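Researcher: Let's run the pair from yesterday's discussion. Sequence first, then tokens, for each.
Model: Starting with the first of the pair.
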Amino acid sequence: MFENKTIKRLEEMLDSAMNGTFVESSYDESQLSRLESKWKEFLGSSVLSNSNLEAERHRLEEFISDISHQTKTPMTNIRMYTELLLEEANLGQEASIDKIYKYADLISRQNARLQFLIDSLTKLSRLENGTLEVVGQNNKVDKLIEAAISSVGAKAQMKNIKIEHKESSDAAASFDMKWTTEALINVLDNAVKYSPEGGRIEVYTESYDMYQAIHVVDEGSGISEEDMAKIFGRFYRGSEVQQEEGVGIGLYLTREILAKEDGYIKVVPNNKRNGGELIVYLKI
């Protein structure tokens, strides 16, 4: 009698697991036999594993959809400009050298955009899947800032933008120099991109008990309250900057890198200057 009851309960638990209605809390531990308790534990872990697999499958589907959507525009542009270039070249002596150079330059720009997008997506995929290792070590923050400024220096010069770095030689934190430099480059590149010609970007550090903060303040159009909660989303671009070049992945990648080393990034309103301010927090 007892065995039949136990078998019946085991069958009920298995059936509920198979049709997706199994819930561990539905079974009172005090009323279960040792065998039923082990069966409950096994089914509970199986349901959790299936749930995780389903979440991962959904995330992968979204990621593939993002790749398809984001690569479509540059690939379409490359094909269009290539056709225009060939048409112009086929005119022979009547061809316009200026148009040929123009189309070649546009193809080069779209190719660079596509390459940047693919590289970023590859890094992002490795970060999200845990196959890219970010190892925090004690490093000087000024060294990080100078490396990042150096990487965006040429782009800043083209817009006659001055990047002012207020050094603090004692500032140190625990971070991966290679990947955190890339994270800060994304922040500075964002500041340069949305700053006006002849503008100024201010970079300085501030110490807290648990974090070393890097402030990046620009003179761009600023960030609306609505966008403040969204700018770190994957492929998100604010309504005010839709006309600017970009794919909206840099700040998301920055956030993911910093999270791997227990840091974070946030945007704050800047009342002193009409612009945007992003703050990178590195764990001490």
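Model: Moving on to the second of the pair.
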Amino acid sequence: MRTRITELLEIEYPILMGGMAWAGTPKLAAAVSEAGALGIIGSGAMKPEDLRKAIDEIRKLTNRPFGVNVILVSPWADELVRVCLEEKVPVVTFGAGNPAKYIRELKENGIKVIPVVASDSLAKLVERQGADAVIAEGMESGGHIGEVTTMVLVNKVARSVQIPVIAAGGIADGRGMAAAFALGAEGIQMGTRFVASVESEVHPVYKEKILKASIRDTVVTGAKLGHPARVIRTPFANKIQELEVENPMQAEELLVGSLRRAVQEGDVERGSFMAGQCVGLIDDIKPVKQIVEDVMREFKETIERLKKYVE
């Protein structure tokens, strides 16, 4: 399959792995790249030296293109970008802000720049600044979210920019991919679906939570604190929602380290199990390669099925 995204990133399939802090390990990212998609290391919780080690590790596992996601609210954002420059990372995606000050230097060094956007205005802004593509991520996604649904956001962003658009948020299969392409996307990004894979290194409890959850089993925490995030409903998530109103400072304190506790320890008492609403579409743990192949097969089947309506 060829789209502007596959040509830009030199990959077989227009599928990106979400840049997930703690969960986006070199092992998982390498498996995604080996499957013909684009694996992305999630540097959100990393210090510069940690990222350099992660890049070295993924290069030992694959010689295919990969990316690094940089969260702009990280206290080490400048240093993380510097590591990407020094290591000549093929692709850098950005989240949680406007990466304007980094785009020119990254591109001058041959690095593809793809910001995550939650609005058409930010998409147009980063396009003017030289971004190669944008990831339009709707509020159905796991982790930190915006306020617009994937269906509306992708549709609007695709109409607003000339650069390629990658759809994200609630996509876990070929039907979701076909819907995204119908809205004008030329690629998709999946996070939760890859967390529920054989190669994912999250705690088994995390994977079990994803498999057992329905499409109504995610909630948004942190909204009243200014940093909303979609997580699987647990007593801890319910407690955070209550404390946001009653004791915001305590809520902030409890959230610190909660994602790491979920990913590494499977801590159901103090962990935030970030996941998108697509959890209700995931009912098995598969190897990454099979996930990618299944998505592409179902995408093609969906397109063929839709043709009968226009013949």
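Researcher: Give me one sentence on the second I can quote.
Model: The first strand starts at residue 15 and ends at 17.
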